[in-house]
Write a structure and sequence with these properties.
7-stranded antiparallel beta sheet; flat; activator; transcription coregulator activity; Mediator of RNA polymerase II transcription subunit 14
Length: 1364
């Protein structure tokens, strides 16, 4: 790229590229990319195609921008080219000078090695002229080796040499200790087992040649060496070359060279083995038995090892070579010496031998003094425990063993598994007889041992432990202490036993060991002692398992029981057990018979002495019955389930003992009450009892017997016995058990009384399982727990008898009344569902939708022997009066009470159903029926029929339970009070008709004295509220009604009530003492519909009254009421308003009003929208007063703001498509702890409206309320703090400044509202700016409130997540 047109000389380092080449390649590359793009784009969607085109244009534009920069820069290429050429020339010249200097240096070093050598001219002349070198030395021939022998020559020579050696051995005497000599490769291999090996050859080629000893190896091994550690290095091993030379000299001059070789080397091996054993003496002094052994070296090359030396013997005088006080013939020892055959021999005192292995002490195999000592101790221990084994075996020689036993003498076939199992036939087949002994291996002489005593036995080891099986999972192991040789008694168990067993025998173990070491024949008595202890420990473990205490010793004296010595023969053969949950001092004694080992059980009664801690036994009773005998026979001590059976046995014993204690308590109680009784079949008590009732006039006098005329449950004889709730085999094999302390014992009283009902006893056919009694086919059983501390069993039995008699009288009278008047009580009116001793169930109107199930029962006969009533599913408000009528049995005409009672429940059934419909929705009645816990629920068929029938009814209007109060006044009259303002009285006239009257006239001259609280009713003189199952009316309304009733304040008169009853309901009026039409006769069949319409009308009157108050407070004097009491008319400067009662609701009418000659044209659609909103909100059943106040506040808005609010209401009715949440303007709230109760407020003074917008997530069925405060003059939206009072209330507020809530959710609401307000203020475009100026049309204005709420809809996702 030279602009002058003259190209420079070619430069090999020139990296320039032609500009035309760059442009050509760039254009070509762009074109190719464009073609590739056109081929790929048709397969992509629109978005991907647009993205690919943009990427292509960006990359192409970037490349051409770079080309443009390059072309502008190319103007300076000529200057840069000249500079590069100059730099290249200078670098080339510099490299020439540097290469020249390097070549001069290399030439200097190369000339040193280029000098010519000194050539051997004479040798070259000789070789060239003569053809050979004549100056070579002649001795060089000696250095050249002879030619090697061939393999044939070698084999021939070896065969000849082997033949010579074999012939020489044939003519030579060979010692018998040698193994067969093997000749190979000219060498004779000689081997003497466990001593040495040698190799011999000859020094010539004839049979007269001498023997040559080529090698000698001594075989002196210990036990460790046999495991692969190599031969022992004797002290003279470094002199083996000298030994071989001496042996070579001796055999060369001997006439019997092989005998000479054997004698020398054999003597060397024996003396070496003995020296090695002597050298191990110091090692024994470091072991744990160093104080009980002594090693003495004899002058005759012998070693004597004394072991099990008594600790009291003084062995200080004995030295390494002197015996001192030790005696070879008295003290236990073994001696190692060289016998006549020049072999090591081991002798033992006393004389013992292995039962099978005669070479047990083979020193050639095991050259270790410590191992030899342990094997000797093991053999001696085996013989000591074998002596005890034979003593125990001789005890039972008279009785043959039940299983095969293995002899333990020297002729035992398998000493590694010596086992003697002597299971003898028990005397008289007694299951507690045990005699099982065996010999087992000890872990001291074996490598492995597990918890069961099973040893991983090595071959050749002996059993050194005598194992004697005790009761349960316990064993007594008799072993020999390998340090001192004394017997040890070891307590072991094959399972996890409690430490109490080991603690109980710790005090006798040492004493029994001394006794056994002094006289081994005492092993029999020692074993018996441990058997007794182990059997007692089984009962102790069983008591711990059952959660009761046991003692081996107890401070108790038996001075009052002279025969105690015959019962308890030995102090160590019994154990005490404390009986759980007993007030008196009762103890159980478990005694073990000395010879038979059979346990016997005694119950002792003790008394305490305040001056001493010693207990005095007053009586002792032996516990036995057939079940105990069968359990004793099932306790097989050889069974693995023995401990489990002992637990069952002890559990049964305690049960029998407690039954015995309760049996004694019953007899004492009957004696105290002067009730005659007698023992029946040893486990029952027969007595005669007559129930008694308290004296009515004088409670201080004793109770009187019940009137025989009313005593229907009678019998001559009653039987009482003791039961418990635990079956015989209550303990499971997996160890789970019920603690004995939790046993529940019952007193069961049984007798026969087939006739209970006076009228029709055949109806008592159902089995009754209620509380603590059982009845079936005339057989009565009463069961009472013995653990009750409130009342004794006889008092509870008396109360139950009285209660059953009371219910029997009522049931008989009801049955008689129903059967005697079938026309008045047909099956379609009343049916008997079931009869039980303490309950009767009656079904009222089974074929009608008002069917009801009546339970007549005694709820708690022990506390309150009164009859209770329960109606399901529709409660009857007259229950208090009906119960009082049933319980008033002192009247002479009790039969008339029953007749009046039946008529009352039948006549009031439909009325109760109608009242229940006003308060409880039909879908909730079945839930009330199932959740009621006053008595047992009705049968499934009855309940299901009622629930199915109720669910088929249409849903009726249900009033808030806080609004309606039910007050029963008599068995024929009910008062219903609505919000403590209006009330009606319902009087039952007959089964078909009732009378409804305005309560205002009833309270005019006769104020009620009945007080009510919530859903309960209290009558004068009755302080206990009776549950009518009517939903509670709340604190405020109930308290106000009670206060009005106390003060005698009359209720308000129901306006135009006669028009509703006569003109709209077509009911006939009845005469009134005041000559007013205040009561009307109503058919009971239509009572439900009529009551619903009456209270809808009363509710509208109440709302109308509240609306009048709100209008007066909000609009001031700008309202007026016309003559018609059902219409309110008022106005403001924008609108005319009419509030009209239209049954069954309240309607609002609105019209635009002219102002300054111009009529504000609020669209009619918006006015209709607000009136519909008013209708929907007012006619909701909750928070009506709060709703009325909020809606009337909306009517004070100016037209423009009114239209804005109507647009918001329209958006609530149909959710806009761009919004995610449904919305609503709330007119009520359940939050009462705020400074203001309204949910909508308009302040004209501050031009601010306060309202709450509810956003509803229909998908998740949850919502959130956003309180807003809108200043419409400044178009400013803020958070409305409900804790802050309205501006006109600030002067009444006690706080000077109200802070915002610190609730994090409320704080988040504030942030979201501020964020939305900032966005809305900047983006909203208002169409009308003047709020107060009337406009021709307001239908097209832009609502800032709606715009703000739409934006708020997009920002509340953090508070109300949209995803499900």
């Amino acid at each position: 790229m030279n602009n002058q047109g003259q190209s420079p000389p070619p430069d090999p380092n020139n990296n320039n590229v032609s500009l035309s080449l760059v442009i050509h390649r760039l254009v070509e590359n762009s074109y190719n990319n464009l073609l590739s793009l056109t081929e790929k784009l048709p397969n992509h969607n629109d978005q991907d195609r647009k993205k690919a085109i943009i990427d292509y244009l960006d990359s192409t534009r970037e490349k051409f921008l770079r080309l443009l920069v390059l072309m502008k820069w190319s103007d300076h290429v000529s200057t840069l080219t000249k500079a590069n050429q100059i730099m290249h020339l200078l670098n080339q010249e510099d490299s020439y000078f540097r290469d020249t200097a390097d070549e001069l240096i290399m030439t200097k070093f190369n000339l040193i090695n280029a000098r010519a050598p000194i050539y051997d001219i004479p040798t070259a002349i000789d070789v060239l002229t003569t053809g050979s070198y004549q100056r070579m030395p002649t001795d060089i021939k000696k250095v050249i080796p002879p030619p090697p022998l061939t393999s044939i020559e070698i084999d021939s020579a070896m065969e000849k040499l082997n033949d010579i050696i074999k012939y020489k051995l044939f003519i030579t005497d060979i010692p018998k200790e040698f193994e067969p000599i093997r000749v190979e490769n000219g060498i004779a291999h000689i081997v003497v087992p466990n001593e040495y090996s040698a190799t011999l050859s000859i020094d010539g080629g004839t049979e007269k040649s001498n023997w040559v000893l080529t090698s000698l190896n001594l075989y002196i091994y210990s036990q460790k060496d046999q495991n692969g550690e190599g031969p022992i290095k004797v002290a003279y091993e470094n002199k083996m070359k000298y030994v071989q030379d001496r042996i070579q000299n001796r055999i060369s001059s001997s006439s019997s060279p092989l005998f000479e070789l054997h004698n020398i080397v054999h003597h060397l091996c024996i003396t070496s083995q003995l020296d090695i054993l002597i050298s191990q003496i110091d090692g024994l002094k470091k072991t744990m038995i160093k104080n009980n052994i002594k090693c003495v070296q004899g002058k005759d090359q012998s070693l004597t090892v004394f072991y099990w030396i008594p600790e009291e013997m003084n062995i200080a005088s004995a030295g390494p070579t002197s015996l001192g006080n030790l005696n070879i013939m008295k003290n236990t020892n073994f001696r190692i010496s060289i016998d006549e055959t020049l072999k090591l021999k081991v002798t033992h005192y006393p004389n013992i031998h292995h039962p099978k292995n005669e070479n047990y002490f083979n020193l050639n195999v095991n050259l270790n003094l410590e191992t030899l000592l342990l094997k000797t101790i093991e053999l001696n221990s085996y013989h000591k425990v074998l002596a005890l084994f034979n003593i125990l075996l001789s005890k039972s020689n008279s009785n043959p063993p039940t299983s095969s036993s293995t002899s333990t003498g020297p002729s035992i076939s398998n000493p590694s598994s010596i086992l003697l199992s002597t299971q003898f036939n028990a005397i008289n087949n007694r299951s507690f007889h045990l005699n099982d002994i065996k010999l087992v291996h000890s872990s001291k002489f074996s490598s492995d041992a597990n918890m069961n005593g099973d040893i991983s036995v090595q071959e050749g080891t002996l059993p050194t432990v005598l194992r004697i099986k005790l009761y349960g999972s316990k064993y007594l192991d008799v072993s020999v202490n390998f340090q001192n040789g004394r017997y040890n008694l070891l307590k072991s168990s094959s399972s996890s036993s409690s430490s109490s067993y080991f603690q109980s025998i710790q005090e006798i173990s040492q004493q029994q060991e001394l006794k056994l070491n002094s006289d081994p024949n005492e092993i029999r008595s020692i074993v018996n002692i441990f058997k007794h202890r182990s059997l007692l420990s089984c009962f102790e473990e069983a008591s711990l398992f059952l959660g009761i205490e046991s003692f081996y010793k107890l401070p108790i004296t038996f001075s009052n029981i002279p025969t105690i010595s015959e019962i308890l023969q030995a102090d160590s053969n019994y154990i005490y057990t404390r009986l759980p949950q007993e007030v008196d001092n009762y103890y159980l004694i478990i005694n073990i018979q000395p010879q038979t080992f059979i346990p016997t059980f005694y119950l002792i009664t003790c008394r305490t002495n305040t001056k001493s801690s010693i207990l005095y036994a007053e009586s002792i009773i032996r516990l036995e019955n057939e079940s105990l005998q069968s359990l004793l026979k099932s306790c097989d001590c050889n069974n693995s389930q023995f401990q489990f059976r002992i637990q069952n046995l002890l559990s049964q014993i305690i049960s029998v003992a407690k039954e015995k204690i309760h049996f004694l308590n019953i007899t004492q109680h009957l004696q105290k009450q002067s009730i005659p009784f007698e023992i029946y079949q040893s486990d029952k008590i027969q007595f005669v009892y007559t129930p008694t009732v308290p004296h009515l006039t004088n409670p201080s006098q004793p109770p009187q017997p019940i009137n025989p005329k009313h005593y229907l449950l009678n019998t001559d004889k009653m039987l009482i016995r003791i039961l418990n709730d635990i079956p015989h085999s209550h303990i499971s094999n997996n160890g789970c058990s019920t603690k004995v302390g939790s046993f529940n014992y019952y007193y069961e009283i049984s007798f026969q009384c087939p006739r209970l009902l006076n009228y029709d006893n055949s109806l008592m056919k159902l089995d009754s399982e209620r509380l603590n009694f059982h009845y079936q086919d005339g057989q009565w059983k009463f069961r009472y727990s013995s653990s009750s501390s409130s009342q004794d069993w006889l008092t509870r039995f008396n109360n139950d008898l009285i209660s059953i008699n009371c219910m029997a009288n009522i049931t008989s009278l009801i049955l008689k009344e129903i059967k005697s008047q079938p026309d008045q009580y047909p099956p379609s009116v009343i049916q008997v569902v079931s009869i039980q001793p303490m309950e009767i169930q009656l079904l009222l109107f089974p074929q009608k939708e008002t069917r009801n199930l009546l339970h007549i029962y005694i709820k708690d006969p022990q506390k309150k022997k009164e009859v209770s009533l329960l109606f399901q599913p529709s409660p009857n408000p007259l229950v208090p009066f009906l119960e009082k009528e049933l319980n008033n049995d002192q009247q002479p005409s009790y039969h008339q009470n029953i007749s009046h009672f039946l008529k009352s429940i039948i006549n009031s059934n439909d009325i109760s159903f109608a009242i229940h419909n006003l308060l409880v929705p039909p879908q909730h009645r079945l839930l009330q029926l199932q959740s009621n816990g006053a008595t047992q629920p009705p049968s499934t068929s009855i309940g299901s029929t009622i629930s199915n029938h109720q669910t088929q009814q249409p849903t009726s209007l249900v009033f808030n339970p806080l609004d309606l109060l039910v007050v029963p006044r008599s068995t024929q009259q009910i008062r219903l009070i609505y919000k403590n303002h209006f009330g009606i009285d319902i009087k039952i006239l007959s089964q078909e008709y009732c009378d409804i009257e305005d309560s205002y006239y009833s309270t005019l001259n006769n104020p009620t004295n009945t007080t009510t609280t919530g859903g309960t009713t209290q009558q004068p003189g009755n302080t206990t509220p009776t549950n009518t199952q009517t939903p509670a009316t709340g604190g405020a309304s109930a308290a106000a009604a009670a206060q009005k009733a106390k003060e005698g304040i009359k209720l308000n008169m129901i306006n135009s009530f006669y028009q509703l009853m006569e003109q709209k309901l077509n009911l006939p009026a009845l005469d009134n003492p005041l000559n007013n039409r205040t009561s009307w006769m109503v058919p009971i069949a239509n009572i439900s519909k009529i009551l619903t319409k009456i209270f809808i009308y009363i509710s509208s009157l109440y709302v109308f009254r509240q609306a009048t108050i709100f209008i007066c407070n909000i609009f001031g004097t700008h309202y007026k009421i016309i003559q018609n009491i059902s219409i309110i008319k008022w106005e403001n400067k924008y609108f005319f308003f009419n509030l009209i009662i239209k049954e069954p609701s309240i309607e609002l009418e609105m019209m635009n009003k002219e102002q300054n000659g111009i009529k504000a044209l609020v669209p009619v659609e918006d006015l209709k929208l607000l009136t519909e909103f008013f209708h929907r909100k007012v006619n909701q059943q909750s928070y009506k007063s709060q709703t009325i106040g909020s809606l009337i506040q909306m009517l004070t808005l100016p037209p423009l703001l009114f239209v804005e609010l109507c647009k918001v209401i329209a958006s609530c009715k149909t959710k806009p498509p761009q919004c995610r949440y449904a919305r609503d303007l709330t007119t009520n709230t359940s939050i009462w702890n705020t400074a203001n109760k309204e949910t909508f407020h308009h302040s004209e003074k501050t031009t601010t409206i306060y309202f709450i917008v509810r956003f509803i997530n229909v998908q998740n069925n949850n919502f959130i309320d956003i309180p807003l405060k809108y200043n419409y003059s400044q178009r400013l939206m803020n958070y409305w703090n409900k804790l802050e009072p309205f501006p006109n209330q600030l002067q009444q507020s006690s706080a000077s400044a109200i802070t915002l809530t610190q609730d994090p959710i409320e704080s988040q609401k504030i942030q979201i509202i501020d964020q939305t307000a900032t966005t809305a203020s900047s983006n909203f475009q208002p169409s009308i700016t003047n709020i107060d100026q009337p406009q021709q049309s307001l239908s097209d204005i832009n609502s800032y409130i709606l715009y703000f709420i739409d934006n708020l809809d997009q920002n509340i996702n953090s508070l109300l997540p949209f995803e499900k």
